[in-house]
Amino acid sequence: MIEKHLVQITSELGLQPRQVAATAVLLEEGATVPFIARYRKERTGELDEVKITAIRDRLEQLEALDKRRESIISSLEERKLLTEELRAKVDGALSLTSLEDIYLPYKPRKRTRATIAKELGLEPLSEILWAQDVATDPEALAAPYVGNTVTVDGKTSSLDNIAAALAGARDILAERINDDATARAQLRSLYLNKGIMKSTLISGKEVEGAKFKDYFDWSEPAATAPSHRILAMRRGETEGFLYFRLTPPESEALGTLFQLFVRGSSPAAKQVQLACEDSLKRLLGFAMEVEARGFYKKKADEEAIRVFADNLRELLLASPLGQKITLGIDPGFRTGCKVVLLDRQGKLLAHEVIYPGRGRSEELEAAEAILNMVRLHKIEAIAIGNGTASRETEAFIKKLKLPPSIQIVVVSESGASIYSASEIAREEFPDLDLTVRGAISIGRRLMDPLAELVKLDPKSIGVGQYQHDVDQSALKRSLDDVVISCVNRVGVELNTASRHLLAYVSGLNSRTAASLVSHRDTNGPFKSRSELLKISGLGPKAFEQAAGFLRIRGGIHPLDTSSVHPERYEVVDRMAEDLGCTVEQLMKDPVKRNAIKLDGYVTPEVGLPTLRDIIAELAKPGRDPREQFEAFSFADGVEKVGDLQPGMKLPGIVTNVTAFGAFVDIGVHQDGLVHISQISDDFVKNPAEFLKVGQKVQTTVMEVDLERKRIALSLKTKVDLAPRQSKGAPGSNRGGRGEDHSRFMRQDCGKPGTGGDWFSMAQQKKF
Length: 767
Fold this sequence. Notes:
Blueprint (H helix, E strand, L loop, with lengths): L1 H12 L3 H12 L4 H7 L1 H4 L4 H30 L5 H9 L3 H8 L9 H7 L3 H9 L6 H5 L6 E4 L2 E4 L3 H18 L1 H14 L1 E6 L15 E5 L5 H12 L3 E6 L2 H12 L5 H50 L9 E5 L6 E6 L5 E7 L5 H18 L3 E5 L4 H10 L7 E5 L4 H5 L2 H6 L5 H14 L1 H5 L18 H19 L1 E2 L5 H4 L7 H14 L16 H7 L3 E2 L17 H10 L4 H6 L1 H5 L13 H12 L29 E9 L3 E5 L6 E4 L20 E10 L4 E5 L28 H6 L7 H8 L4
Helix pairs in contact: 1-2, 1-5, 2-5, 8-11, 9-11, 9-15, 11-15, 12-14, 12-15, 13-15, 14-15, 15-22
């Protein structure tokens, strides 16, 4: 199959034929994307995961195209419609769209107006009209057909007059125009390049659909509409608040059809012109609008999925605190704070509930409980969830004057409640309350975000835009790719990793991961990678794919702690032998490593790219590619939206990057929006080029809307603040909107997709 599509993929992706061919063969052999990128560089010409994934996806698309082609040919053969000319056209189609255009005239269809007209014997009349001879008199030619009658399935159709006969003939022509591949191609191009997206309010839905107010009367060119606006309008349509259309200028659409099919101004040509108008209004225009809407929906989906995937990658690769004895705290007012004690491997040692907000006596009890745990268990870190009462709990902990070596960190709780009620959580802690499970997740997230977040459905983490509106299978595929990429990039400690983390390792799945954990529980820690071959269901191929991504600290072979693949141990052994030392000495001595002449170890299977990777790994075996953990604290004394004032300079953490800006947590239980125009003093086209999820930033409060809990922030060095107070801000005696909003809130957040619609929808947890 790859030979058939090699030239096309090579041209589309700008790669060399050998790279595409080698990658296709490896994928067909069952190799994973991370494995190919890391351990088969010589064969692919050092392609990265992005390019390998693009080859994989394009191969799958072309395979689907081939299956559809085979299905069409089979259908045509069965109905004895396949000619050599038609087969050549079908075989030559390079896209699903062109293939369907070719097949459309031969496609079995329901009984249409054109079908009925043909049953009434009007096809000869339609052919005469189609010829558009100047001498043709349509009415005279139609007269003999008056009185024709046909009954099909108990339904009778008849031609009562000349007008009905001509209308029937035009129905045949309208369908013929609709089925014309050239007409469809030109109309398709017009809809895609000059189509205008329009949304209008459905009468009587003003109040219910208020969150879509910006789209009550909105239009813009489809070709330049950003993805979030497209998805917002479609959501408004889906929820029953908006009419949504995508159409080009009607005059241009009709002009295209007239140019293709109308010849002259004879009476017959007038009939063809009427057929063109009917086809556009009733058939072709509708079909092209559906296609164009689908095209831009797919384009918007791809952008939204890309944003989500990029954000998820940053979140999964967030800096880990590492193996520390940790207290995890799930804050709460009425129900108290759930506190868990975790050892350095994240195992639960103890848990209890404290009530620091219920009065002096209970606050003293809570303080004593925390201090006792710190003293008895030598606590090294405290993770506090960022939900309700988080800032109050943080202030309480800081008042205890704990040893300065203890790091106190506020951790995102996003998705923790979903984990708490999940099957995974019930399996891990069947006898614990949901709130205790949540506190455990919070503590573990601080220690190793990746290991804990892989237990969640990525969609529940809350770093996407319109994820519920996009193609769910495409979203899942993309997010799964990101999780797999991150897990294998970091590597997994074989003797401590959970079954859920192991399942994402290249070559493994949930079944083999469970077998690994079972073997580990029964036989003790793995001592070497070679022991993996003893696992039931894990054969040589799975071992090849997985071994390099699994680490064993203190294993028998010193390279088992590194990303050097077992298939290359022999190369390292030869290096050490040539230098007269052991592998351990080679790993510890940079002088010896620098003395290695890599050219001497090149073979047909092992080239310089792999050898350079090996040397880098020998220098820092098992190095974690994630950045060093840096503690972060919100501003003291600013704990709720009411504490904010325009002009305040506050530290924050980016929680979500979107196409129109970014949301930032500044520690007031409500993220603020940094609109794209406020990200930098320089022009910003793509927020992701300036910001990433988890990034620490210094913000300036521009405006606060207490009533709707909206916060406008800026990252610019010079911020132009509004001269008037924010709506509802402390000290303000204004209650209306309009003039009480700053220029930023009025002009920027009010535009569709730039804040107004996003703020309200974000509050409803729809992203």
